[in-house]
Amino acid sequence: MLASWKLGRVAGIDVFVHPTFLLVFLFPDVLRNGLLAVLFVLAVFGCVLLHEFGHALMARRFGIETEDITLYPIGGVARLRRLPRAPGAELLIALAGPAVNFAIVGALLLLGGMGLADELAGTATGFFLEQMVVVNLFLGLFNLIPAFPLDGGRVLRALLSGWLGRVRATHVAATIGRTLAILFGLTVLSTWNLLHLALAAFVYFAARAEELQVVHEERRRRYDGDNQGIWVAPPGYRWVQRNDGVWQLAPNVVVHGGPYVGPSPWR
After folding, report:
1. 1, 89, 179, 248 — which has fewest CB within 10 A?
2. pLDDT of 258 over the 80 cut
3. If 0-12 CB within 10 Å is exposed, 13-18 middle and 19+ buried, where does residue 267 land?
4. Catalytic machinery residues
């Protein structure tokens, strides 16, 4: 696997960029429009990064730390050590990311309403700010699609957990996620847009992986409930067996991503 490059540490959270992120700058639209397109891409992923910090900082309020945040061509991924079992807490953590994007939209519209839009009308800066409004609206609304593992899928699971239980609620949200991923993949297959195909694959496999993880956790919780003692893992950890047969504690890591898919405005 390619090692990610560390950009820095913000609010106690390490921020990385994966080498494949550089592929974004090879898109035809970016190559054709030069420096302006590069600045636009960097601004977009700056918004993606803020989206992920929204999740991470809200999770911290519930005592859940974030391993790191990594930027990929399809968006950002915040690796939370665990997710709370309480539906209310999971709901707030899931909504925190899109809330950041909507807050950015609100701030830009407020500046526009104060006369900035008239002053910058017809300028490159004005066009850039208009595109930032569109991008953040897209990021917020796209992530609210009720398909696991998108934020909307986590919101759906939180709302269904009290009624169906965590496992069945996860199955419903993950099934919707896989179905939409297949439909989206088939739709963009004719265009051979590798970014869109990669996003469809990410949603499909991430939904399946997290569903299996939840099923495994619930089975382990039932087992631990009947077998109290040193084999009961503390909250946020699980027992894993190494290749030499030795058992050890390992932290639960939950991948929480905010994919970005959006055309360049310079088509």
Report:
1. 1
2. no
3. exposed
4. 52
